[in-house]
């Protein structure tokens, strides 16, 4: 029986995933996955309550009735909570299925367990970003943990800024753990593991950036109709 230990997997990935490879059963995944989802929902609810990232809605406060404004904030909050549940599920399933294409020799349960570690890091990133977003009013593109600030010094092109802002120290750490995890769980080369992880992460942030920009465009369009 292999027990999921997130700290060990992040600090000693080679030893941890070496033991996971030999495991016949895995215990603790669902409890930890559920805990991360709950934390994600709490952060989303707190953000909605405190009005984090609702500046675009607030700008139209003088143009619409108070009831409509509060309803818009409610919808924004509900959307954030739904996203806080859907995003982790999508991330885990995306990487699990993509990795399975290139690593058919690794069992499904071990591949999905591997994704728990990037999910933990992404959740910690949200937690650490929260005070910057709430207290200072920093936008996601300008997170102190990402490269969005640097790209904004070179261009103001929305898609480029959005895309690069998804590259953070936590994403790099996640990719590092994924590379070691794939290598230790399979007999394939380091080059194959690195190539798979880099490709899948680039594809993921590309799709995430496209979705984010589309949502922003829809929001701008709706505001224009107010």
Automatic annotation (TrEMBL):
GO cellular component term of the entry, any: membrane
InterPro entries membership: Yip1_dom
Main location: membrane
Topology with respect to the bilayer: Multi-pass membrane protein
Alphabetized UniProt keyword annotations: Membrane, Transmembrane, Transmembrane helix
Superkingdom of origin organism: Bacteria
Entry's transmembrane regions: 29-51, 71-99, 111-138, 158-181, 193-215
Keyword Membrane set for record: yes
Coiled coil: none
Yip1 domain boundaries: 10-210
Keyword Transit peptide set for record: no
UniProt-annotated location(s): Membrane
Protein name per Swiss-Prot or TrEMBL: Yip1 domain-containing protein
Natural source organism: Metabacillus indicus (Bacillus indicus)
């Amino acid at each position: 029986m292999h027990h999921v230990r997130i700290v060990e997997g992040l600090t000693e990935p080679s030893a941890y995933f070496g033991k996971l490879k030999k495991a016949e059963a895995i215990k603790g995944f669902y409890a930890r996955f559920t805990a991360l989802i709950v934390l994600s929902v709490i952060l989303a609810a707190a953000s909605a309550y405190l009005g984090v990232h609702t500046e675009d809605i607030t700008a139209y406060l003088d143009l619409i009735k108070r009831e409509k404004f509060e309803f818009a904030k409610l919808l924004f909050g509900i959307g954030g909570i739904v996203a806080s549940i859907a995003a982790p599920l999508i991330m885990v399933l995306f990487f699990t299925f993509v990795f399975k294409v290139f690593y058919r020799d690794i069992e499904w349960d071990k591949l999905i367990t591997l994704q728990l570690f990037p999910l933990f890091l992404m959740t910690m990133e949200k937690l650490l970003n929260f005070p910057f977003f709430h207290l200072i009013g920093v936008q996601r593109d300008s997170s102190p943990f990402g490269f969005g600030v640097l790209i904004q010094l070179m261009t103001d092109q929305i898609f480029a800024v959005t895309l690069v802002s998804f590259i953070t120290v936590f994403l790099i750490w996640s990719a590092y753990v994924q590379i070691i995890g794939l290598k230790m769980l399979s007999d394939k080369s380091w080059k194959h593991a690195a190539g798979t992880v880099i490709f899948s992460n680039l594809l993921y942030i590309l799709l995430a950036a496209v979705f984010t920009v589309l949502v922003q465009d829809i929001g701008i369009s709706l505001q224009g109709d107010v």
